[in-house]
Amino acid sequence: MAQQTCKCGAVYEVTYHHTPIPDTDYEDCSHCGERLASWRNETTWPEYKLVKTPDE
Hints:
single chain; mainly beta
């Protein structure tokens, strides 16, 4: 499992999923709205779980 920090300081755990069917989507920071990632027709895509906000 990886971690990613948004520009605002929010920290996310990142889990990558592998599927046989391509997926197109995006993920934005739930704290500030900044785009964390986007993918198009990918069979591997990330899932973000907020673990720490900049206020903590």
